[in-house]
Design goal:
This protein starts with a helix and ends in a 9-residue tail after the last helix. By secondary structure, the chain is mostly helical. It has one domain: Four Helix Bundle (Hemerythrin (Met), subunit A) (Up-down Bundle). It is built from six helices and two strands. The protein is elongated. A two-stranded antiparallel ribbon has the order 1-2. Helix 3 (76-100) runs antiparallel to helix 4 and helix 5 crosses helix 6.
C-alpha cells in the first residue's frame, strides 16, 4: 500500500474514532440542565478555529491533496508513530469522557448537580481532554506530510486552548472555590508534573 494513502487512512480512522467516542456522550448530556453557560459566541469562534485545524484543513489535504507544493517525504516510521500517538489520544479522549460523565460539555457550562472530578485521569492533570486534543494534533503533524495541513491542528487547537483554559479555570473557581484551588495546586494543566 502507498504510504501516503496509509497516512490518510489512519488520519481518517482517527477522526471517525473521535466522533464515535463523542457522539453517545453528547446525546446523554443534552438532557442535563445547564445552570451557567459562558461566552457562547466566543466559544463558537474558538470551536471553529479548532475544527479548521483538526478537521477541515487536513481533510482537504486528505481528500484532494491540496496543497501538494507543501508536501514533504514520508516514512514508515512516521506512519507507525503517528498511528500509535493517535491511538493513545483516542484512548485518553474516551477515558476523559467516561470520567466526566454528565459533567462534560463541548462549551463552557456548569450543569445542575455538577461535580468536580478529581479521579481517574483527572488525578494527574486538570484538563486531560485538552491533552488528548494536543496528542491528536501531534499525531496529525506526524501522519500528514504537508507543511500546512500537518501543523494546522496545533495552530487551530492551540488558539482554542490559549483563549479558553483561563476562562474555564475561572468558571471552575467560581463554582467550586477552595476545592478547585486545592485541586489546581496538586495537578498540572495538561502534562503531568510539567505544565
Amino acid at each position: 500500500m502507498n504510504l501516503i494513502l496509509a497516512s490518510k487512512i489512519f488520519w481518517a480512522i482517527g477522526v471517525i474514532g473521535w466522533y464515535a467516542i463523542r457522539f453517545p456522550f453528547e446525546r446523554r448530556v443534552k438532557r442535563e440542565r445547564v445552570v451557567d453557560a459562558r461566552d457562547r459566541l466566543r466559544e463558537r469562534i474558538l470551536l471553529f478555529c479548532s475544527t479548521m485545524g483538526l478537521g477541515i484543513i487536513p481533510g482537504i489535504w486528505v481528500f484532494t491533496g491540496f496543497p501538494r507544493s507543501a508536501d514533504y517525504p514520508f516514512t514508515v516510521a512516521q506512519l507507525v508513530l503517528g498511528a500509535l500517538v493517535f491511538g493513545f489520544s483516542l484512548w485518553l479522549f474516551r477515558r476523559t469522557h467516561k470520567d466526566l460523565g454528565k459533567n462534560w460539555s463541548v462549551t463552557l457550562e456548569i450543569k445542575d448537580k455538577h461535580k468536580l472530578i478529581t479521579g481517574g485521569v483527572y488525578r494527574y492533570v486538570r484538563h486531560p481532554m485538552y491533552s488528548a486534543f494536543f496528542l491528536w494534533a501531534l499525531a496529525q503533524l506526524i501522519l500528514i506530510p504537508n507543511w500546512i495541513a500537518g501543523p494546522a491542528g496545533f495552530i487551530g487547537f492551540g488558539i482554542l486552548f490559549a483563549f479558553r483554559v483561563g476562562r474555564e479555570e475561572g468558571m471552575m473557581l467560581d463554582t467550586f472555590g477552595d476545592e478547585y484551588r486545592a485541586y489546581s495546586a496538586r495537578t498540572a494543566r495538561i502534562v503531568p508534573g510539567v505544565f
